[in-house]
Amino acid sequence: MGEKIHTIFVCSDSVGETANTVVQATIRQFNASQVQVRRFGSIRTEDEVRALVEEAAKVDGFIAYTLVLPELREMMRQEAIRLSVNAIDIMGPMMQAFIDTFKGSPKRKVGLLYQLDEQYYQRVEAVEFTVNSDDGKDPNAMKQAQIVLIGPSRTSKTPLSIYLAHKGYKVANYPLVPEVKPPAIIYELDPSKLIGLTMSPEQLVRIRTERLKAVGLPFGAKYATGERVEEELAFAMNLYRELGCKIIDVSEKAIEETAGLILADR
Known about the structure:
Helices cover 45% and strands 15% of the residues. It has helices at 17-27, 46-58, 70-82, 92-102, 118-132, 157-166, 184-188, 201-215, 226-243, 255-263; strands at 6-12, 35-40, 62-66, 87-89, 147-151, 171-175, 194-198, 246-249. The chain starts with 5 loop residues before the first strand and ends with a helix.
């Protein structure tokens, strides 16, 4: 007999991304291989809330929800009590704290986060810029970039760039190779927008080895040897010190964590 599958229900009157992010962050703190997340978006009626809580009760799951309309939040609260289901209100306490502290009045309009406002178009522009500036495609773009990531191959430059772009930042990244002198423009940039990425040699060897397997290249290629990795990391660290830029060790860090370290200074 296999382990019981535990179910978390993510419920929202919008797309549920906020609640899902909190749930996924929570799951990572546990050995939760037997957990499944079910998302229910665009909840609009009390009947939908009632049905969802009943389903959660049947499988002994719990609910994480973001509901803007007070009547839906109240229905969720009542049904959860009636059926003894844990239901976590992700947004309600935050909205109440805003009201109590700043005496504000919420719009109570669903989906505001995803409306096509100025910030949305700023994010689109940032993503387009970042894609076009990936992997040193256009070194001159570093002048216009708000953040420039530099580091050896497979130190998470591209996924980190895209993540930051979705936050609205124009990002360029450049791969460092000992045999290739970095473009002169890197030395002209404000060090505050340069981020040097590094990683433990052991982890970088593992990642590169998996990369070789994925693309069908022979195991043991120089690219993934400990000696080559040590050489590249030493070259990168020397350059970082020369540039005077911030250095982040991304070993065992999630993209979100690294991004948080970068944005903390901005």
